[in-house]
Amino acid sequence: MRWVSGLVAFGLVFPFGQLAGPRYERVYPLDPGEGVFAYSRISPSGRFLAYASQIRNSAGRMTTTQTVVDLDTRQVLFEEPGIDAYWSTEGDRIIFLSQGRQRSVTIRHHDSGDLARNVAPASLGDYFSWARRDGRDLILTIRGNYYFLDGDKADLPAGSTEPCPGIGRGERPLISKDGRRITAFVRGRIVVRGLTDCENVIDTGLQGAKADFSWDGRYIAFHVPKERSRGYRIAIVDLERRTVRTLDNLEGSALFPSWTRDGRLSFRYDGDDYRGFMFADDVLTAAERPLPPAGDRIPAAPRWSQIFPETPEPDARVSLVLIYASWSAHAPDALRDLQQADRTFRDGGQEIDVMTAVERSSRREDVDRLRRQGGITLLEIPLAPERLALTDAVNQIPTTLLFRDGVLVDRRLGAQTAAELQAWVAEAANAAPAPHR
Question: What is the pTM of this model?
Answer without folding.
Answer: 0.83
